[in-house]
Amino acid sequence: MIRFFVDYGDAGGFFLGQLVYRTNDLAFAMEPSPADADSCVEVNTLCLLVERVTHSVEGVDGYCPYHSWRRRTLAAPRARRGTLRVEGPEFKRGIAYGLNAAFDDSRWPIDCDPIAGVVCVGNSQAAPAAEAVEFASGCSVVLLGDQLVALWLRPKEWPEVVAPEGVPAPGSGR
Q1: 154 in any annotated domain
Q2: Judging by DSSP bridges, how do beta strands 131-136 and 80-81 pair with one another?
Q3: Which residue segment(s) compose the domain that 87 sits in?
Q4: Is the peptide bond before 77 cis (omega within 30 degrees of 0)?
Q5: What is the pLDDT of residues 4-40, one digit of tens each?
Q6: Which of 14, 53, 60, 144 is the most buried (most CB within 10 A)?
Q7: For the chain, what is the radius of gyration of the CA atoms?
Q8: Which strand (E) or helix (H) includes residue 59?
Q9: Do 64 and 29 meet the contact criterion of CB atoms below 8 Å apart?
Q10: Would you say residue 69 lies in a domain?
Q11: Whole-structure pTM over 0.85, yes or no?
């Protein structure tokens, strides 16, 4: 079983790159890519990039086509900055460990709010006991105990095609 925990005292674990959405690739990416992340935990087809020695999660990347996002009015949880760590498998270079199956009924829903500039993978209605943690620039998770229940993404660049008509996409500079 994959479990998550947070270290609020380790300021060195926060990755300062930028989360972007690459419309042509239909994918999220960190720029620059975290150099030490060499394994991952998958949520749908997204990878939580894991540094296999420290087990710290350093960012998010992966295929996530905007065509499947459900438009909603979302209120991203207030997240406290910390180092997100993962326990469970013995992480190996280049291996992805799935939290859920990527292509069946266990896929997590993906909601987006183009006006707020956020995408939520998973449960966008956090329980009162849930804890929100920002582990990299533009990347937060919601934990209920040691289980991940939602991944919140706020990309620096937003797919123009998702923004409502007449509303500039966040990061578009208009």
Answers
A1: yes
A2: parallel
A3: 3-162
A4: no
A5: 999 987 655 566 789 999 999 999 999 988 888 888 9
A6: 60
A7: 15
A8: strand 56-63
A9: no
A10: yes
A11: yes
